[in-house]
Write a structure and sequence with these properties.
Bound molecules: NADP nicotinamide-adenine-dinucleotide phosphate
Strand content: 5-15%
Largest sheet: 7 strands, parallel
CATH superfamily: NAD(P)-binding Rossmann-like Domain
Radius of gyration: 20 Å
Structural class: alpha/beta
Shape: globular
Distance between the termini: 47 Å
Helix content: 40-55%
CATH topology: Rossmann fold
């Protein structure tokens, strides 16, 4: 039993304590009544964000390209929360998939209050000037254009409701371009600008737009880096917290930004990077 519970029990008696803890449980569901779309959420950071939003009371639609991955991800939600999760396949680079994602969210849960645009890709490793036009287009299509187009599609629904919250997932590479993945880094810098620009236009509509720039988070995406002892050690030299981040380290800040606790926060780019250098 926690110390405060024991003390409260002594002071108030059992029933009131029960009431108190029920109240605090209810109050902690800060996203109760909200409906969220989290893209690229069948694993890694997206799944971590989706789980946190659901545990904070939101109804969440998870998605990614492969239906089998989405099915697997659905199985990882606790039994008592699964009614608040819906899964569908969606490649964010495809117009028809994005439309289907939005229609399905409205059909399933009746609203869209939150968009977390998390999908990112990086088909090019090597010197920047060796990046092909195709690879450049793919990086910008998935990382930047689809984020903009998804935001554009959800905004009318948020406007109709009188409120909304959009969060883009950028990268610490947006601030300090990462050698060998420079075009990816530039695409993530573009998301910082997209955040500021959309926030300016959507503020009067009570739609807030913010951006998270994760440091190195332990997922499949960063596997080449985190699983190589030499590179991992080098990477952590610049971090103040001497570990890689976990998807849960991102979920909490996204949930906060989508909640009324962050009602006056918009246009911000927030680094979650364990103290790694992170300013332009
Ligand atoms: N991990 C890091 O260190 C780190 C650091 C900074 C920023 N980020 C950013 O965080 C985001 C998530 O990365 P992560 O580390 O969580 O990656 P991850 O663990 O590899 O997961 C990627 C997820 O995205 C889905 N996906 C990939 N391409 C997609 C597309 N075109 N449309 C829809 N879904 C797609 C994948 O499922 P399917 O294969 O089924 O599509 C999977 O669910 C990315 O934007 C990445 O740039 C990551």
């Amino acid at each position: 039993m926690r110390l405060w519970t024991a003390l409260a029990k002594q002071a108030l008696g059992g029933n009131q304590v029960k009431q108190l803890s029920t109240t605090s449980r209810v109050m902690s569901k800060r996203l109760e009544g909200k409906v969220a779309i989290v893209t690229a959420s069948s694993q890694g950071i997206g799944l971590g964000i989706a789980k946190k939003l659901v545990s904070d009371g939101a109804k969440v639609v998870i998605s990614s390209r492969k239906a089998s991955n989405v099915e697997e991800a659905l199985k990882s939600f606790p039994d008592n929360e699964i009614k608040n999760v819906h899964g569908i396949s969606c490649h964010v680079g495809k117009h028809e998939d994005r439309e289907k994602l939005i229609e399905e969210t409205l059909r399933q849960f009746g609203a869209i209050d939150i968009l977390v645009s998390n999908a990112g890709t990086n088909p090019h490793f090597g010197p920047m000037l060796e990046c092909t036009e195709d690879a450049w287009d793919k990086i910008f299509d998935v990382n930047v254009k689809s984020s903009f187009l998804l935001a554009k599609s959800v905004v009318p629904h948020m406007e109709a409701q009188g409120a909304g919250s959009i969060v883009f997932i950028s990268s610490i590479g947006a601030f300090h371009p990462i050698p060998m993945i420079m075009p990816y880094s530039v695409s993530k810098t573009a998301l910082l600008g997209l955040t500021k620009a959309l926030s300016f236009e959507l503020g009067p509509e009570n739609i807030r737009v913010n951006c998270i720039a994760p440091g190195i988070i332990d997922t499949k995406f960063s596997g080449a880096l985190t699983s190589n002892e030499f590179i991992a050690e080098k990477a952590l030299e610049n971090a103040h917290i001497k570990r890689f981040g976990q998807p849960e380290d991102i979920g909490g800040i996204v949930s906060f930004l989508c909640s009324s606790d962050a009602a006056y926060i918009t246009g911000e780019n927030i680094v979650v990077g364990g103290g790694m250098p992170s300013r332009l």
